[in-house]
Amino acid sequence: MHTPSASAASDPRSSSSAWLTSWWKSAAIYQLYVRSFADGDGDGIGDLAGARAHLPYLAALGIDAIWFNPWYPSPMADAGYDISDYRSIDPVFGTLADADALIAEAYAHGIKIIIDVVPNHSSDRHPWFVAALAAGPGSAERSRFWFRPGRGVSGELPPNNWQSIFGGSAWTRVTEPDGSPGEWYLHLFAPEQPDFNWDSADVRLDFEDVLRFWFSRGVDGIRIDSAALLCKDAALPDVSGLEPPGPAHPYMDRDDVHEIYQSWRAVADEYPGRMLIGEVWLPDTGRLARYVGPGELHTVFNFPYLNCPWDAASLRQVIDSTLALDAPATWVLSNHDVDRVVSRYGRSDTAFDLDRRPYFHGFPVDLALGTRRARAAALLTMALPGAVYIYQGEELGLWEVQDIPDELRQDPIWARTHGADPGRDGSRVPLPWSGTEPPFGFSPAGAESDPWLPQPKEWRDLTVATESANPDSMLRLYRAALRIRRSEPAFDETPLTWQPSADGVLAFDRHGASGVTDGATVRCVANLSAAPIPLPPNAEVLLASGPVYGGVLPPDTSVWLRIG
Ligand code: GLC
After folding, report:
1. Among the four residues 104, 397, 542, 549, which has the most C-beta atoms within 10 Å?
2. What are the pocket residues of ligand 1 if the criterion is a CB atom closer than 6 Å to any ligand atom?
3. Could you tell me the pTM of the whole model?
């Protein structure tokens, strides 16, 4: 186990005390979806051994921190977001000793570790839920969850009309210990994910203990899953579907959720340099702003940026409203819940929203266009002031796999919506590392099982090995951008200054700590218009997302320029 004050060998900033306490304000953070990253033991599922073996790859990529999706013991009804023990590691991924070794090894590479904590719900195999089922109605054990009698003559109807975010009713009826049909319990996600009752002191204290458990093992940050959903109106009223998230909504973004995060912040502050990031999907930036600040979460994910269409005016608006928040920005192009960015930007309709996934199922994608735009978006994103999140495979330009055979789909969303929503499997396909056919080095030679989701054969052109050897690959672009982002003083914690630009073009300067144009200024120009635009004369091209000749920047291309 490491101590946070020890210095990492290869991170040039590790000796800076400002970096140690506020690394999360400007870090490049790699989202490692452990099931799909690298399989060390040949069972077709990624694991901690695979992650450890590839830490040098991540160090060479130039990231500062890794966010691990849930690695805890889980029946895997929702790929690990149904947790049965918050203080251990699922055997399919490894052991607690493996996690300790991974944290220490990452640290030696100068890489920090963020883990996922899921406070809204547990697994139905969590000992507390098992005890609640056994203890029966009215018990203290049941008060840690939301159990209620049903409506109807004999309680045969759910207690209210809430719908699961994964489709179907948010309530499931239990069989009581005596064998009779009994109460119902609430699950905003799958039935295997019963919602905790955050009015329960047991729940509050236990989660504070979970945070301390991981912080004292050396974890540097916590990603808080479904952070706006924890508090419910105990009267459990029906919803009309028209209530906006906020105090009038019975379970989304209620005001009392903030007390929880204030107490979590106090726990985080017991450990120097630790951070909390919330998964908060809220369209209203004013409501979002309430989650961040000195007494609460350090940052939240920037989903408006992710959802934004590939359109300069819309992006400018999201960037400005993000920077207006009184909290360090985060910039996110993709994650394990959304369609991959190459596919989103390769459609004729580039605006995304979780609710639009069914509409996009089978939608035509121009992969060449999507890739060109994703490259341009990468440079735009990495030039913005704040932290950047990179979802594994984004650096390889992987696309959303739309043609997974139905019988191989794993996401509960697919089954619960009866196939109307394809779910998220297409963004979770195991990474291609090397070789010319599946499993592309994801599993070791002679592995007993195929990867848990099938990989497209075309990914032979997108393996880490192939892309490492190709100077024009997405991987080489990400490596170069991350290297420049780390080494140029202009990309320190400094604001941006918008520059005049034509319609469809975004142009801004980063000036470096001195705040003046002194040769250290880097300008980012992103051309989202349909026509080439002239570049400023005498500017040195530091990096371009595509070919730049004759002083013009082609459409769907971004460039970083040194301005003298
Ligand atoms: C979050 C996770 C998602 C998960 C859900 C329920 O949105 O990112 O993957 O299914 O919460 O835990």
Report:
1. 397
2. 78, 81, 118, 189, 225-226, 279, 336-337
3. 0.96
